[in-house]
Amino acid sequence: MPDGLSPHEAARILQRDGYNELPAAPPRTAARLALEVLREPMFVLLITAGAVYLLLGDRGDALMLLGFVLVTMLITIVQQRRTERVLDTLRELSSPRALVVRGGVRQRIAGREVVRGDLLLLEEGDRVAADAVLLECHDLLLDESLLSGESVAVPCSARSARWCAASPGWAARCRCSACCCSAGCAATG
Length: 189
Fold this sequence. Notes:
Number of domains: 2
Number of strands: 7
Structural class: alpha+beta
CATH topology of the largest domain: Calcium-transporting ATPase, cytoplasmic transduction domain A
Helix content: 25-40%
Shape: elongated
CATH superfamily of the largest domain: Calcium-transporting ATPase, cytoplasmic transduction domain A
Distance between the termini: 12 Å
């Protein structure tokens, strides 16, 4: 089995190309969240009702209604911020791990640290971490249901389909080796 990239070379490529991950959306600020909440039809309706109460001279009811709208908006904003933090944490926890050969040593690394030129090893149940060219493959079935919705695993082989493209799937059955050829979601071998 080839030695794969050296750790120094992998670090250099990672520095040059960046992490193997999709660009994340910039975090929403509290002001942006407040504007999004203000655009919701129910809040627009309640604020309009409060303004009508003010115009009709019923200051007490108007202030009470607008006060409840403000409290509800604050609760909504806080809950959305918490939800975003939880989703970010779950995204980090569910990131795939890849088995690579670097400097002749097999090691399990975060999928985001896979670089172009890495020698990837796939075994049954592994999640595909990067686009790769299959070098050697024995009984590879790739579950691409996340990508295509198909419930049947797709067979791949080094002879017939040398390229396993971006497939956020799992190896249903296999023993493979592959060379990472680009960043993204793909089959490891």
